Amino acid sequence: MRVLVTGGSGRIGRYVLQEMVQAGHTVTSVDIAPGMVQGVPALLVDLTDAGQVYQALAQSKAEAVVHMGAWANDGHVPSTRTYGDNVRGTFNVFQACADLGIRRIVSASSHQVYGTAWKAPLYVPIDENHPLRPHAPYALSKIVGEQAADYFIARYGMNILSFRLLGIRLPSAIDAEIERNLQDPGAHKRLMWTRCDVRDAALACRLAVEAGTVPPGPYNITGRLNLLDQDSAALVARHYPTTEIRDGLEGSLSPTSCARAREAFGY
């Protein structure tokens, strides 16, 4: 399959490229930074420029898109650009795909849409039905991206999967993350004591692209277990005393559920 990856020079994007190449797909990377994966064609593309997006997609003859290109958090640029560039870039990618007949898109959203960085979750395990409570322009831009996906799904019959990514880390960073969480669990509760190896996030992207019929919409993507190897219900009860603990949070399972992704495409 011919797959175009936006943000291919980014922290997650480069691993998505590697995963796709190893699986035998023909891959093109687009980013505002030079390509970083040897042997993968790379185009310098500004996603906020619709013309560049159209040409990149047409040139690559893409059959599917993994859309990771965005300002990856608040603080890299002024808030107006974080929000504006992310929203405009996502719309441009979706519209170009719609016009060019590309129907399968995996699009990066964020766990930040749930607002656990500033408010206790209403319930755990957090599933995709949990209310959205953005606290910063980045999270708001991701919610708008998901709403744009709903529009293109309804109008054009596209199959867009919005990945609500949580705690994606390089393999070399995982041990330090575990140590920090063990030393002070309360200080790291906003990420629900959960991290995800970037290689697993890349695997999720490939599985979603390769799957047959997959329901569109949001999917949580993160690690299966909490970093502390402790009882998750007890952790939540201690640090989020107002949060409802529902069935399904057993043992050290992450308080953020990836059950929907597991059922839909085997993540």
List the SSEs and their pairings.
Elements: E1 2-6, H1 13-22, E2 26-31, E3 42-44, H2 50-60, E4 64-67, H3 79-100, E5 104-110, E6 123-124, H4 137-156, E7 159-165, E8 168-169, H5 174-183, E9 196-197, H6 198-210, E10 217-221, H7 232-239, E11 244-245, H8 259-265
Parallel strand pairs: 1-2, 1-4, 2-3, 4-5, 5-7, 6-11, 7-10, 8-9
| Main β-sheet description | 7 strands, parallel
Superfamily (CATH H level) name: NAD(P)-binding Rossmann-like Domain
Kindly identify the CATH topology.
Rossmann fold
The helix/strand class is alpha/beta
Note the beta-strand portion: 15-25%
What percentage of residues falls in helices of 4 or more residues? 25-40%
Number of strands: 11
Shape estimate: globular
Helical stretch tally: 8
Average pLDDT for all residues:
96
Radius of gyration (CA) equals 18 Å
Order of helices and strands: EHEEHEHEEHEEHEHEHEH
> Which strand order spans the largest sheet, edge to edge or round the barrel?
3-2-1-4-5-7-10
N-to-C span: 20 Å
Number of domains: 1
Annotated CATH architecture: 3-Layer(aba) Sandwich
Q: What is the CATH class?
A: Alpha Beta
- Spans of at least 5 consecutive residues whose pLDDT stays below 50 are none
Protein model, in words:
The chain is α/β, with parallel strands linked by helices and 267 residues long. It starts with a strand and ends with a helix. The protein contains 8 helices and 11 strands. It has helices at 13-22, 50-60, 79-100, 137-156, 174-183, 198-210, 232-239, 259-265; strands at residues 2-6, 26-31, 42-44, 64-67, 104-110, 123-124, 159-165, 168-169, 196-197, 217-221, 244-245. 38% of the residues lie in helices and 17% in strands. It has one domain (2-118, 126-170, 195-225, 254-265): NAD(P)-binding Rossmann-like Domain (Rossmann fold, 3-Layer(aba) Sandwich). The protein has a 7-stranded parallel sheet with strand order 3-2-1-4-5-7-10, with helices on both faces.
